[in-house]
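Below: protein 1.
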Amino acid sequence: MKGQVHTGRPSKLLRNLSSKIASIPMVLTAVVIFLGGTVWTVVYSFTNSKLLPRANFVGLDQYERLWDAPRWIMSIQNLAIYGVLTLIFSLVMGFLLAALMDQKIRFENTFRTIFLYPFALSFIVTGLVWQWILNPEFGVQSVVRSLGWETFAFDPLYNSDIVIYGVLIAGLWQGTGLVMCLLLAGLRGIDEDIWKASRVDGIPMWKTYLFIIIPMMRPVFITTLVIIASGIVKVYDLVVAQTSGGPGISSEVPAKYVYDYMFQAQNLGQGFAASTMMLVTVAIIIVPWAYLEFGGRKRV
């Protein structure tokens, strides 16, 4: 018996050996480049590095300077507004579109392609397109005024109080189609017998969606939320293409702040501190979710 146990262990270690060997470069890349780069960034955020990184540690000076900067505070406020509204509107509109598509409408493939097409465009192209659409000289405002409404005003990209909502419109236009397709795939995975049973029981359609279908689609919603959230945190090129952070600093976002300080202001220490705060923000959101999602399963 003892001999069998000892001979069994090597076989388990050698099982799928070729696959394990093939995965070594990927593991090393993840550990050395991604994890190592993250640790390196955090460490040098406590230095006064300028054009080049240097190990001259200054404690929390970079973080104090960061949170005293009106530009950083504005970027955090804009990211919060953009993030919350993007999550709400993209999920609501995406689910409504998916529910309509799930009714087996005519020309479904055509409509699905139309709604998903904006996602195929880069954020730079999307930003430039919506910059033209929202331009008061020849965009929506000009078209409506040419129809007779001379007092109509719609220039969000030139109004510092609402400019982030102009960026939000472009972001929703590009991303809602993807959300629709993800949720539509989830809806198509629902057993048809559930719909038949709800109709037999006389349950209204909206209650079926709200109390039966949506809870069953929890994994799909979680995947969609992760995809949306990753796009929110790193939003950069959409803002650059539409407003370049203006008017003034009214449409500033954290990713643009990091880029400007690292590559234009040549202040690596400040850029590292800002990127570390972005990492902390993501960790605050991801770690509790991961604990509840996977830790709870292990206990069960």
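Below: protein 2.
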Amino acid sequence: MTNTISQHLPLQAELAQTIGAHAQVPGDFPTAIAGLGFFRREQPSSPLVCMVEPSVILVAQGEKKLWVGGEGFMYDTSRFLLTSLDLPANSEVLQASPEQPCLGLSFKIDVQMLAELAAQSDPPPYRDVAERKGVGIGSVTQPMLLAFQRLLALLDEPDAIAVLAPLIQREIHFRLLQSDQAARLRKITAVDGQGYRIAKAIDWLKINYTSPLRVEELAARVQMSAPTFHHHFRQLTTMSPLQYQKWLRLTEARRLMLNEQQDASSAAFKVGYESPSQFSREYSRLFGAAPKRDIVALRGQRRSTDERQDAKIKSPSP
């Protein structure tokens, strides 16, 4: 194991250098390659509420942890994070500093591409592990790192992205199906499987989160009985369908208040709440502070971050 990790170090260092060049200040950064983003963190942080799409998160430097349903999933340069569903979670930075920032990438999974590749390859031997959840930790492999290295290199050759990026992205999906997380991914691609049906239900919830939710009707929509649907939904997401809808409503209300300057009552009604007081109670339970107080704190953090970024841009490191 030690030898394998040591073999990865030069590749990890090169990935970190590339990511650092494109993410020179703390934040999250999209790239010219669809589905690929970079992140940079310069200090440890307590868990922050987030939504994680079906994706691979690869850390080139530093260490992070994702909390889902009270369970922590730690990942670093030797372990990648895989999420096979849209999951409400809390993201924590464990290891980072201005001198040694936490650097990494997010790579969005194309479920259709994954299904095509899964149909063309033999499934791995059955492993009796917790593939029931929509999140897991996998071992980073050298072929996986080499594929990501080639993908990132295309950022310096923009004219080649349209032609070569889809080929490398396809290879990355294949490498994932060869990894120790293959069983988790295959559950989502199996059209007749429970994971696929729960993913379809989540897609519906994301579009219709403002509407009243009748679990029996949603279960019927994805061709499952209500008890079976409820059981598998909780198993994969660690929350009930109603809790999932509530999370969608509250995070969207937070965005409306923070980015669109809406007051708490307006945001509450817009996302489907009928009672501002109920909205305030549930918002406080999720985010740890009443809506107005939370938004004031977030705006203060944003101003502080912007000032640090401006200072860093004006005084770049030699």
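The longest strand covers residues 87-95.
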